[in-house]
Amino acid sequence: MARRAGSAWVAGIGVVVLALAGCGAESTGSAPRAGGTLQVVGAEDVEHLDPASAGGVHAYGLNRVFARTLLATGASNNFDETVPVQADVAERVPTKENGGISKDGKTYTVRLRGDVQWDTRPARAVVAEDFVRGFERLCNPAAPSPYREYYIATVEGMAEFCDGYQEVPDDDAEAMAAYQKEHSIAGVKADGDRTLVFTLIRPATDFLNMLALPSAVAAPEEYDRYVPDGPEFRRNTISNGPYRIASYQPGRSYVLEHNPAWRAASDPLRERHVDRIRITFGVNDPEEVQRQIERGTADLSWDQPVPVAAIRRLRGTDGFTFRQVPGIAPYLVMDGRNGPTADRRVRQAVQYAVDRTAVIRAFGGPEAARPLHTLIAPGNTGYFEHIAYPSPGDAGDPARCQDLLGKAGHEDGLELTLAAHGHEDVAEAVKESLADCGIKIELRDEETDADLALVTPRPDWFGNNGRSALAPLLEDHPDLYVRHMLKESLNASALDRATGLWNQLDRLAMQNASIVPLVDRAVPIQHSARVRGARFLPPAQTYDYTRLWLTQH
Fold first, then answer.
1. Strands 369-371 and 253-258
2. Which residues pair with 418 in a beta bridge?
């Protein structure tokens, strides 16, 4: 889930889609060639390997190759094509028209494909009860899912099941398995081997997105033997995707090889070309990862960004481009309840003062970022372009800022503190912007009692993602009406109604002026010269490993 950062209401917010075009050469051409080893290099292992416990972009990319979900989103270099939810293990996406969603919007019936199999000996079918087990494991006391709150707030009986599960010893696999057998989630039922029925507390226009989260996976009965995400589990993962984990050295490497039980005809979203995927950890320097990719000793970065200093040199080269990933640029957030920023005129002064062109330079230039003026970014549900605080060329308006400060009683300027949260270059750009209108900024590493904070949104899905991206930011907003409208938006029973409410909420939040949108970002990404078939997965911030193939082995 999007994480909170900062004061009671400062948190990650979600935005969707840049309107930035990808740059650089795109790998296309002849038919895929089978064979070879895809080399992925980076710094650190995932925190959690178990799909029930995993979260974050790198775990998403890894889990996608061996743990299939009910629904999913596709990989594409056109961001719009990656937003719609598609069927994965499900035969089709449930709708009211096809009878998969009840008229009152509270019952979802999902029919499973009959040809998805576990990599067991012998191979056996993935059945509905495996998905029931998967949802039950989300609230295990050993390593609970970071996404569980979405389901708790939405699925009937999930809260009660999860509350009871927390009383089970977190180091006793047998006790956890017994709890799951003796208790059930009222709103998650198997109707035979190939049908799942979900019952919701109330209609939720984003429930399909929840069924596409990486936690919405099946769990084979063998997983009952292990403490979730424990050492034994990590040595005994079972795949129903195109690759299986053949070798795992914690903190050092993964080797993934073909899953013999996988069939291409059973999987509408993945392919399988390379013989194996090797992920190697311990390379902590982004510059070194970049050198390895350019030398061809690595094909793709696992978790290290393309260095900003290298972007100018790489423009136009084979394998380098920018890809859209919504919700990854920091917003400038003010508490709005205490200190000078409790005065809306001060908050408005900050809005006018910010030089977005300086922030864009910090990210590598106009191909890497563009100005953002709204809480909701282009392409997201509820987006509509409006500029509440315009400035010439988006470079800030110091005169307007000074006028507002004067009206707020700060004719001689103002001193504020800013928590950078690792965004030092952006913080410096903001600091210089505010200095031009008489606001002196003291930068801090910690956010305690800071007047302003740079907060990076981390939405868990794209498109209709207000619950994931906006709610964590706005649920404790100082404006009561903002909080009320947030609740209305989340409880909307139809998408068109939700869209209108999110748009109104955006406008209201910008009038309050506590949140300063800065830029939409694109991710600079590089792959080696031998890689082809690159199709981007925004939730993973990398290319879909299952689609890649190599021109030379």
1. unpaired
2. 443, 452
Write the DSSP symbol of residue 66: T
Q: Are 75 and 314 in contact (CB under 8 A)?
A: no
Burial of 403 (0-12, 13-18, 19+ CB in 10 A): middle
One-letter amino acid for residue 493 of the chain: S
Question: Which SS3 state, helix, strand or coil, does residue 192 take?
Answer: coil
Q: Which residues pair with 318 in a beta bridge?
A: 25
Per-position DSSP letters for 258-295, written without gaps between them: E-TT--GGG-SS----SSEEEEE-----HHHHHHHHHH
CA dist 424 and 413 (Å) reads 23
Amino acid at 302: W
Using DSSP's 3-state secondary structure scheme, residue 216 falls into coil
The rounded distance, in Å, linking the Cα atoms of 318 and 27 is 8
Question: Using CA atoms, how far apart are residues 228 and 174, in angstroms rounded to an integer?
Answer: 11
- Residue 147 to residues 22, 84, 353: CA-CA distances in angstroms? 31, 20, 37
> What is the 8-class DSSP label of residue 527?
B
pLDDT band at 16 (very low <50, low <70, confident <90, very high): very low
Inform me whether the pLDDT recorded for 94 exceeds 60.
Answer: yes
Half-sphere exposure for 353 (CA within 13 Å, toward CB): 28
Mean local confidence (pLDDT), 504-514: 95
From the list 404, 360, 392, 300, the residue with the least C-alpha distance to 518 is 360
Place of tokens 């993934």: 256
- The answer, yes or no, to whether residue 50 has pLDDT greater than 90, is yes
Q: How far apart are the first and last CA of the chain?
A: 39
Contacts of 148 (CB under 8 A, 6+ apart): 138, 139, 158, 162, 215
Are 239 and 218 in contact by the 8 Å Cβ rule? The answer is no
Q: Considering the entire predicted model, what is its pTM?
A: 0.91
Distance CA 327, CA 17 (A): 8
Residue 72, both tokens? 């999913």
Query: What was the pLDDT predicted at 322?
Result: 95
Task: Categorise residue 487: left if φ over 0, alpha if ψ from -120 to 50, beta otherwise.
Answer: alpha
Closest CA to 323 of 484, 544, 537: 537
- Cα separation, 157 vs 188, in Å, equals 8
